[in-house]
Amino acid sequence: MGETSMAEVPPxxxxxxxxxxxxxxxxxxxxxxxxxxxxxxxxxFARQGIPCRIGELDGTPINVIAEIGxxxxxxxxxxxxxxxxPGDPALWATDPLTPVVKDGKVFGRGAEDAxxxxxxxxxxxxxxxxxxxxxxxxxxxxxxxxxxxxxxxxKIEAVRGLRAxxxxxxxxxxxxxxxxxxxxxxLEVEVTGKAAHASDPEAGINAIVAMAPIVSALDGxxxxxxxxxxxxxxRASLVIxxxxxxxxxxxxxxxxxxxxxxxxxxTETEADANREIVETVTRxxxxxxxxxxxxxxxxxxxxxxxxxxxxxxAAAEEAATAVLGKSVRxxxxxxxxxxxxxxxxxxxxxxxxxxxxxxxxxxxxxxxxIEQMALAVEVYLKTxxxxxxxx
Length: 391
Ligand SMILES: [Zn+2]
Known about the structure:
Helices cover 33% and strands 26% of the residues. By secondary structure, the protein is an alpha+beta fold.
């Protein structure tokens, strides 16, 4: 198949998406400070006569959920309105909470993660809303909060019975549909020994010394885990990400704790990942020294994968190929995101799809390409159109 040229994006789409992302960046929405951006979005939909409700978590508004169209089929557009904090302003060339348009980009905290993605989704959604009487499916726009605090907004909707036939999560993917992501298992390993004065080592049990062979053994396991791979998400991993122990320079340490970050493939289970770590740790604990060891689960976010044969995958591949003028095939995501709740809790075939690359997320001088946002609007619209034809 020959290469075709990139689609022409109407200039008004470029303007609408730029204005919207600037509005969103100008409203700080980090930490738990999400009420102003929620009000902005709810007012915006109300002005256009788009039915919308506010989803609450423990009595506090967290999500804005708008819906258009009719019929039994439902497609969800999901992206988050919260951001990470701006960080040290000295590291920024511009004020992180004042949107600046420069060199075809919008700069500011959240411009890329995920206000640029959300803006593109909303412009696509509002384009459909303008002709909603002819829409043969229902389209639900979820602007969720608490994403940077563990996916709270999406999780609460999924647990409360969100149902749909397909979903798109708006995160930066370079406009390539991603259909799988890894999970993450966070554990703590604690070795308990016995404190004593450092001048009398035999009276104590040194927890740091007992932890040493455990660290080595886990590093050996990490090398073995690194050899496992899955087609979309790549290689599994295990990293010892922190260590702590000891209370003073002259005391035998009674306690030593390490943290483990284990990235789990869609082909692996939490139980298997946990079991091999516990076995490795237990085997490595020095015998006869009197130290005890405990492995604790801190958090688990399950991996997820959508069947490559799902209509939403084919629709997004077709749309991105048409808009970008080159063959686009589904790939995988290396981090975790709200897709996990949509797939694992709400059982919705889901893809991740959005403008620009994720490299600048959470960093100083975060920015989003206006061209990419405008193309994303077209890709979202064409994806919905192609999906509607398939279901
Ligand atoms: Zn994000």
